[in-house]
Design goal:
This protein has 87 residues and is an all-alpha fold. It has one domain. It is 85% helix and 0% strand. The chain is built from four helices and no strands. α1 packs antiparallel against α2 and α1 runs antiparallel to α4. The radius of gyration is 19 Å and the shape is rod-shaped. The two termini are 13 Å apart.
Length: 87
């Protein structure tokens, strides 16, 4: 019985890792595209590559990047609470 739960958590963790990776890549690409469009619109002066890299560095330290970790936290907590209350 315990091995079934362990297998469920392992496969769930692998699935959540894939989802996390996809959401992370998508979020980075959206942020990069936003920076590129803002620069191309003429709102910013200077070197395009430096502007985009600076914006991506801010993104890596920002809240949106941290919130993607909820992809792991919410399903795991929900599963643990479900198991606790059902048993």
């Amino acid at each position: 019985m315990i091995f079934g739960w362990i297998r469920l958590f392992v496969f769930g963790f692998v699935g959540l890792t894939v989802i996390y990776w996809l959401v992370s890549v998508y979020s980075r690409s959206v942020r990069r595209e936003t920076l590129e469009k803002r620069f191309d619109a003429g709102d910013v002066e200077g070197d395009r590559d430096a502007y985009i890299e600076q914006g991506m560095t801010k993104y890596e330290k920002g809240l949106r990047k941290r919130l993607i970790w909820l992809v792991y936290i919410i399903p795991m907590v929900a599963m643990a609470l479900t198991i606790y209350f059902v048993n």
